[in-house]
Write a structure and sequence with these properties.
The chain is mostly beta strands. It has a single domain, classed as Hypothetical Protein Pfu-838710-001 (Beta Barrel). Strands 1-5-4-3-2-6-7-8 form an 8-stranded antiparallel beta barrel. β7 and β8 form a beta hairpin. The longest helix is centred in the middle third of the chain and has 10 residues. It is globular and about 40 Å long.
Length: 156
């Protein structure tokens, strides 16, 4: 079974940008419910479909498959919930080899910046970089699927 173990954090500073070239992401959801999500994504020039299960702590099942970019674009335009998620993603690799993914959202989620780290085990230890802020793992507002239903611009 595919498994994702991920923790999410707010971002305090933009130091992660130094020397990094971002990738442009556009994604949408075919299914958003409490037990599963089905996401379509274009990352750079590649298309993907991803199925994720219900979260338990910072873990959930995850299955991701490449699809033709043109088909991903058709699905995003014609079948996915709106608004679509638009963001640029930076990757920042620590000296210990751990990679952080930092998403700077645009469109209806302009101003939101979230950093994620994928782990091999829920209890795996790590030292966050100085630009990492408050942990928001488990706060449903920060899930990309929820940002489709309740964009950051509408938060109080």
């Amino acid at each position: 079974m595919g498994q994702e173990i991920e923790r999410k954090f707010k971002v305090k500073k933009h130091d992660y940008r130094k020397g990094n070239t971002p990738t442009i992401y556009k994604q949408g959801y075919l299914c958003i419910d409490a037990d599963r999500t089905v996401r379509v994504r274009i990352a750079g020039e590649k298309g993907y479909i991803t199925i994720k299960g219900k979260s338990s702590g910072c873990s959930r099942s995850e299955y991701e498959y490449p699809i033709p970019r043109e088909e991903a674009l058709e699905l995003l335009e014609n079948l996915c919930h709106k608004p679509l998620i638009e963001k640029v993603r930076y990757r920042y690799t620590e000296q210990d080899g751990k990679t952080w993914e930092i998403d700077e959202f645009s469109g209806d989620n302009e101003g939101l910046i979230v950093a994620e780290i994928e782990l091999n085990d829920e209890n795996e230890s790590f030292v966050p970089p100085e630009w990492v802020g408050e942990e928001v793992t488990g706060d449903l507002r920060y899930y990309n699927s929820r940002l489709t239903l309740h964009p950051y611009r509408d938060w109080e």
